[in-house]
Design brief:
Length: about 350
């Protein structure tokens, strides 16, 4: 049998297997991560090697440096994941990997590593979308959570409202027409002189400020489920530059707080509109910006007022990690989706 014939037989057999152990690989941006996840819900190990301290020096992720560090770290991350899980490579049933969306060079490291492992172990290789992975993070945090539900996807690469009709059936309800919300947080943080990644620093600073700053900004795309963040980003940047040019004092804490209030209002209002329009009563938040404390708090209030049940992943599964890739990969197997051959390559963009 060829590798692919054997992989297909094993892939099909996994649908009826009681315990399926997936080794998953994630390298789409600046985290090198490998996890071992059983049946989509039980995380045996989730090792995340972050490059944040390196990219901080440059104020953002430098793709070439990210790729080189993935290469440097990935074997050690695998060894650690196996050690923590108490499993060996022989215990694994399938290898899953993020093939997109993300930085091309960074993704290629994970994809080639996963292909090599799958081929050497004669195991099925499962190509997973990073966005689906972020949604899958919730299956780890909530063992009883099942589709259908509505998802607000808020990360550095994506901002969208997605109808999750089934584990592997997604419908786009609305999305950003320009910047992602994560980019907007990072840009505003940068103009305030805060370190990369800006989101968590804005979150922290905003707690010490008051919502008193008025930016030259009007909420765009009202009465739709689409977002636009470039206008808000520019309004905050202009506000700060204007103050600096006039040598006027400004309070960074208040700017962070007022900016965060506007962003979270926008996210909560449009997500609630989508819930109402579609009659959804379950809402899931996914992606790095889902770690934002004000978003979690405010969405909680909106959901309570509107009779919607809210699910937010525990913080460590909001930002990039391989456990979420292993979680959704299990449902790919059950839905007969994602089996890849050795021609698999990375994709910088992937549709929902
Ligand atoms: O999902 P993620 O780790 O990577 C992508 O798939 O893009 O998201 C990263 C984004 C960054 O823009 C980061 O600033 C933002 O998530 N982020 C936050 C917070 N934690 C991470 N934004 C606001 N508040 C936070 N607490
Ligand atoms: Zn991500």
């Amino acid at each position: 049998m060829t590798y692919m014939e054997e992989a297909k037989v094993k892939f099909d057999a996994l649908k009826g297997k009681e315990s399926v152990l997936i080794l998953s690989v994630e390298s789409s941006c600046d985290e090198t991560s490998i996890a071992l996840v059983e049946n989509g819900r039980n995380v045996l190990a989730n090792i995340v090697s972050s490059q944040i301290d390196i990219h901080k020096l440059y104020g953002g992720v430098v793709p070439e440096i990210a790729s080189r560090n993935h290469i440097k770290n990935i074997s050690g991350v695998l060894e650690e994941a196996l050690a923590v899980s108490g499993k060996t490579l022989q215990d694994i049933d399938a290898v899953a990997v993020t093939y997109g969306a993300g930085l091309m060079g960074a993704l290629l490291v994970g994809v080639n590593f996963a292909k090599t492992l799958a081929y050497a172990l004669k195991l099925p290789l499962i190509a997973v979308s990073h966005v689906h992975g972020h949604i899958g993070a919730n299956y780890i945090s909530y063992p009883d959570l099942k589709p259908p539900f509505l998802c607000l996807m808020v990360s550095g690469g994506h901002t969208a409202i997605v109808q999750v009709e089934d584990y592997c059936r997604f419908k786009l309800v609305g999305s950003t027409v320009d910047d992602s919300v994560g980019e907007c947080f990072d840009k505003v943080a940068r103009v305030l002189g805060l370190a990369y990644p800006g989101g968590p620093n804005i979150d922290r600073l905003a707690k010490e400020g008051e919502n008193v700053v008025k930016f030259n900004y009007k909420t765009p795309l009202k009465d739709t489920c689409n977002f636009s963040f470039s206008g808000l980003k520019t309004a905050v940047v202009n506000f700060v530059h204007n103050k600096e040019q006039k040598n006027e004092e400004y309070c960074k804490e208040d700017i962070a707080c007022s900016f965060q209030e506007l962003v979270t209002d926008e996210l909560c209002t449009k997500t609630m509109k989508a819930c109402k329009d579609l009659g959804e009563t379950k809402l899931v938040i996914a992606g790095g910006v889902g770690a934002n404390s004000r978003l979690r708090e405010k969405m909680g209030q909106y959901c309570q007022e509107n009779g919607v049940q809210l699910f937010v992943p525990v913080l460590k599964y909001c930002t990039d990690n391989a456990a979420m890739i292993g979680a959704i990969a299990y449902y790919y197997i059950l839905a007969d989706k994602g089996l890849a051959d050795l021609s698999l390559t990375a994709r910088p963009t992937v549709g929902i």
